[in-house]
Amino acid sequence: MRAFGLRTRLLAAFLLVAAVSAGTTATLTYREARSALLKTAQDTAVATFREHVQQTGFALPLRVEGEEREWTEQFLRDLARKGKPRPWVVFAEYGSIRVSSGQSPVSTVITPELRRAALANPYGHFERVVKDGVPYLTIAMPTVFKTGPYSVLPSGLVLYAVMRMTDEQINVDALLTAARDGALPGLAVALVPGLIAARSVLRPVRELSQAARSMGSGRLDTRIPVRGNDELADMARTFNESARQLEDSVHELREAEARARRFASDVSHELRTPLAGMLAVTEVLDEGADADHLDADTARAVRLVSAETGKLAVLVEDLMEVSRFDARAAELNADEVDVAEAIRKTLQNRHWHEDDRVRAELPAGIRARLDPRRFDVVIANLVGNALRHGGAPVTVRLRTEERPSGATVLIVEVADRGPGIRPEAIPYIFDRFYKADAARTRSAGSGLGLAITSENVMLHGGTIRAGNGPEGGAVFTVAIPLRAEGAGDEE
Questions:
Q1: Mean pLDDT rounded to a whole number for the chain
Q2: Locate the HAMP domain: which residues (predicted)?
Q3: Which of the residues 48, 57, 270, 308 has the least number of beta carbons within 10 Å of its own beta carbon?
């Protein structure tokens, strides 16, 4: 399972929703239970304290000296013992007089706000206060005189009840612990349906990924099983429909490509016979033009026809060679050759060894298994291309190179000093019929020479690369393994 894969994100989202739901439920339940618990305790205490105060009579003005103080304190202690839901500490305040049922006559948890509320409200007031981490319920209940059926007059005497709420706090903490402890197992249980949901979502996604890889490898008949009627099923149906359309389109393209290849091959074969006759005739006419048997205009026309017929013959041969590559019928008849000697023969057969524009740097002693005819085509096409489109001098370099993998590679470089190749043209330089006219002079070739060169290099198990040299000019680099792996020798 990937760290941030779709399964992880689905599980995380599912658990997050479960955690939010459990947390929200636990929080609301805790709040309601806490409010009910505290409200029950404080309502009981307030109602009980109000009832006892209303049933008690005091002789006013209150004096707390001698026996009267002892009587008042005893009264407050008796009242404190009657506290519900648990005993209180009762305080009495009348003007500057302070009496209590406890050790101190003044309470530190009775706030000024409670005192002001007691004076303003003759029916009493209460507050929950936390002092040094201990929760208290403080109740203020003023004593009053009834002046009518529905009217009262404050007497000035206020009784306060202070009750610890530690038991309620313990119960509240227990509720919080129960809510927390109940949420954790809930998340663990939610993991199971999360895994099931993630699996049900990821299964069609995995099938889609496998189908895409299968189609990428060429199996265009790949389809995904459609299950259900949800969005994932719609995705599977869309993929299947797209795959079917793609299969049909590719099938049509392959048929069209096959027809085009057959057409080029058939045309090339059909043109060879008449071209052979035309070449024989043009040779005779060339001899007549060279012998001055023809007038100047006719001789010029004859030479033009002869040159164009030769170009047509070369184009037909190139088309036939390309057709053999397309049909996978090209064979590699490899033999052990001296690479430097093979390059010299290529230059000599085309009289380039006498041309000052061509230089060769060919160290002796480099041998490799090559197809002499195809290797000759590679060198001839690269040098001829450099002479036609580049600038002198054209340099042919030969060397071997050790790769990091430990393999030894044969390297042949053909460099010229011309204008070079436009960077945007480099990726297409070996395409068929491509001519980088903007970077070179107008090409007289067919545009198939470099494509045939690339096919012959790949047939040897090698690679060819085009680029520009640091000092200008185009550089074509051929790399052929001295022991071609995976290419195989077809003899």
A1: 80
A2: 199-251
A3: 57
